[in-house]
């Protein structure tokens, strides 16, 4: 259940990044976008409640 939610959020975020990249602005910012994705994943993982 939690993994599905996380996957949906990640796919949504990935889509936003792809749209941004298509505009041409993101071409020089690949590294920045990569860092944003990593930070986003870490934040999501930390926000998930720990399994009992």
Kindly estimate the percentage of residues that lie in beta strands according to DSSP.
under 5%
Q: What are the segments in which pLDDT stays under 50 over at least 5 consecutive residues?
A: none
The number of distinct β-strands equals: 0
Q: What is the makeup of the main sheet?
A: none
Derived structural class? mainly alpha
List descriptors.
mainly alpha, transmembrane helix, 75% helix, 52 residues
Compile the SSE list and pairings.
Blueprint: H1 2-22, H2 30-47
Helix pairs in contact: 1-2
Quick description:
The protein is an all-alpha fold and 52 residues long. The mean pLDDT is 77. Helix 1 packs antiparallel against helix 2.
Detailed description of the structure:
With 52 residues, the protein is mostly helical. It has one domain. Helix content is 75%, strand content 0%. It is built from 2 helices and no strands. The chain starts with a helix and ends in a 5-residue tail after the last helix. The mean pLDDT is 77. Keywords: Membrane, Transmembrane, Transmembrane helix.
């Amino acid at each position: 259940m939690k993994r599905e939610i996380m996957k949906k959020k990640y796919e949504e975020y990935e889509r936003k990044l792809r749209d941004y990249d298509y505009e041409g602005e993101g071409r020089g910012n690949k590294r920045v976008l990569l860092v944003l994705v990593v930070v986003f994943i870490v934040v999501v993982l930390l926000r998930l409640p720990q399994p009992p």
